[in-house]
Structure to design on (299 residues):
């Protein structure tokens, strides 16, 4: 009996000792929960850095008889840049196209081909332009095609209308955005031949524009069975057209076609009216401005 009690006592003591030596198990506690914070603000999209400024050399005729067309050219080009850029501008107010701000450098060729060529070379060599745009004068435009070829630079022609620039003077760097004299004549030649006369007189300015128009008119009316019986070139500086008008009236033509440009158009129409030409024969032309239209039809 004593033996059994002793065993029990020893087991009890051992149990106590083991309990004291054992590592107590901590009561499970909840993981601390971080205090809720506001959602991180979405980072504002960063704009890509702009590329190098794209310089375009715009050659125009801001002074002289065709200054009105120069204003149209410059304004139209700016509208085009605004459209192509979606109106996006840099801090300097330059339109941004394909990641590059566009700077337009305007030069006045004063209606001379020599000045236009000199300005184009200056724009390329000094100002570092990458594109040439313009001009107003077809004579200047024809001369600039050579500069474009020599420098392997795109020449965007507008508003010069002579077809020579994309005809006999064409090269792969010439890009036209304006109409040509062929467009002017083809749209009306069929009607004139079939409804007015098969015989035409043509008073035209004696430069690349007028000469191109004469070639286009001969082609267009000839296509429908007509003929230019009296081609009448006149110098660009002409202010008295009476001799040329009389030549047209004496030619036997039933239709007088006109190719002129600038403020001279107004004087030409006034003299046509004074000489009774508008009553004696049908006069056909394209009006380049409101002043010319008003000279014939009034305000």
């Amino acid at each position: 009996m004593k033996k059994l009690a002793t065993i029990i006592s020893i087991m009890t003591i051992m149990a106590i000792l083991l309990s004291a030596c054992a590592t107590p198990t901590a009561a499970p506690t909840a993981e601390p929960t971080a205090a809720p914070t506001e959602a991180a603000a979405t980072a504002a999209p960063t704009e890509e850095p702009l590329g190098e400024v794209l310089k375009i050399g715009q050659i125009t005729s801001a002074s002289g008889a065709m200054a009105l067309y120069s204003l149209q050219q410059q304004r139209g080009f700016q509208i085009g840049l605004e459209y192509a850029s979606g109106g996006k501008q840099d801090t300097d107010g330059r339109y941004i196209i394909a990641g590059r701000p566009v700077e337009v450098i305007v030069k006045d060729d004063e209606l001379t081909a020599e000045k236009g060529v000199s300005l184009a070379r200056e724009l390329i060599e000094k100002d570092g332009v990458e594109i040439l745009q313009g001009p107003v004068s077809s004579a200047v435009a024809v001369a600039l095609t050579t500069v474009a070829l020599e420098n392997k630079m795109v020449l965007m022609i507008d508003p010069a209308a002579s077809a020579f620039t994309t005809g006999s003077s064409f090269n792969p760097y010439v890009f036209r955005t304006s109409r040509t004299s062929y467009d002017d004549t083809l749209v009306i030649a069929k009607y004139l031949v079939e409804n007015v006369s098969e015989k035409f007189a043509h008073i035209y300015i004696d430069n690349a524009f007028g000469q191109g128009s004469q070639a286009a008119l001969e082609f267009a009316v000839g296509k429908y069975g007509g003929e230019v019986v009296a081609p009448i070139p006149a110098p660009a500086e002409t202010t008295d057209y009476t001799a040329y008008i009389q030549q047209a009236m004496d030619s036997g033509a039933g239709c007088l076609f006109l190719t002129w440009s600038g403020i001279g158009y107004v004087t030409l129409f006034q003299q046509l009216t004074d000489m009774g030409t508008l009553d004696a024969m049908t006069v056909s032309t394209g009006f380049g401005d409101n002043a010319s239209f008003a000279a014939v039809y009034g305000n």
About this structure: DSSP finds ten helices and ten strands in the chain.
